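Here is one chain, start to finish.
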Amino acid sequence: MQQFTAIIEREGSGYVSLCPEIDIASQGCNIEEARNNLVEALELFFETADPKEIQNRLHSEIFITRVEVNIG
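Its structure:
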């Protein structure tokens, strides 16, 4: 079992979920569905991907922060 980051954002009338460590995304009608669909997509990826592909795609350090930007 390993933990990954899930970024979930509203897009239109649904939600998009992204795992930046592996660059896998999914979607759902609500936050819970988007999260569950991302978990399923990640499990399928790890079940079927070649170990070399996993190693090439895996980003071991992900930093999520907020920044201030002057607008206008």
